[in-house]
Design brief:
This protein has 201 residues and is an alpha/beta fold. It has a single domain, classed as Vaccinia Virus protein VP39 (Rossmann fold, 3-Layer(aba) Sandwich), CATH 3.40.50.150. The chain is built from 7 helices and 7 strands; from the N terminus they run H-H-E-H-E-H-E-E-H-E-H-H-E-E. Strands 3-2-1-4-5-7-6 form a 7-stranded mixed sheet, sandwiched between helices. The longest helix is centred in the first third of the chain and has 13 residues, at 6-18. The protein is globular, with a radius of gyration of 16 Å. The protein starts with 5 loop residues before the first helix and ends in a 14-residue tail after the last strand. 35% of the residues are buried.
């Protein structure tokens, strides 16, 4: 893990700097309903969770930075602190799992994706929203984060999709718009076979 946790420091001002983005595309893709249990993983200050809270049964923010989660609690959003690579959750816990602008900050992207898949319910959906690294301006942002010594590894959305396609019964698609990409991973509702890529606990 990074020696300096940038997000613990910038938590109190994060929303003022980065929290103005629209969630309309995310809402459209996720097709939330009032019966959904939703995990906002890497959800930080709870900005997105607060926006979808009226639409679902429950939404919980999971993040490793306490400085960010303190801000989420001010929004009266339920939360827990954990690293995304080892979630303290049972399998098939959530109908929707979202990760907004956080995948590139993960220490282990592939392991996190496996954990997300493990806790996703049958018939559920993961939506990962990321800056599209093929965009010129996003490339500049990536350079800036490197200069700030942030733990950033931007992947092409197609690469993230390929990582998810290894899972049995995964239906994966990619959408792009104006420098932003969404990787949509649906877990088909049929029971999975013995060839799953991981023994689920």
């Amino acid at each position: 893990m990074a020696k300096f946790e940038h997000f613990n420091v910038i938590g109190p001002i994060y929303d003022r700097i980065f929290g103005r983005g629209s969630v309309d595309n995310l809402l459209e893709l996720c097709r939330f309903n009032s019966t959904n249990n939703v995990l906002d993983l890497g959800g930080g200050t709870g900005r997105v969770a607060a926006a979808i809270k009226p639409l679902v049964q429950i939404v919980i923010v999971g993040d490793s930075a306490m400085g960010m989660l303190k801000e989420a609690r001010l929004k009266e959003v339920e939360d827990f602190m954990a690293y995304s690579e080892c979630l303290p959750l049972t399998k098939h816990s959530f109908d929707r799992i979202i990760m907004v602008d956080a995948f590139h900050h993960l220490a282990d992207q592939e392991l996190t994706l496996r954990e997300m898949w493990r806790v996703l319910n049958l018939g559920g959906m993961i939506v990962i929203e990321e800056p599209d690294i093929s965009n010129f301006w996003v490339k500049l942002i990536a350079v800036g984060e490197k200069l700030l010594l942030m733990r950033s590894r931007f992947l092409r959305p197609e690469t993230i999709a390929q990582m998810a396609e290894q899972y049995d019964d995964a239906d994966v698609s990619v959408k792009k718009s104006k420098g932003v990409a969404w990787v949509i991973i649906e877990k088909l509702s049929k029971e999975r076979g013995a060839s799953d890529v991981r023994d689920e606990r």
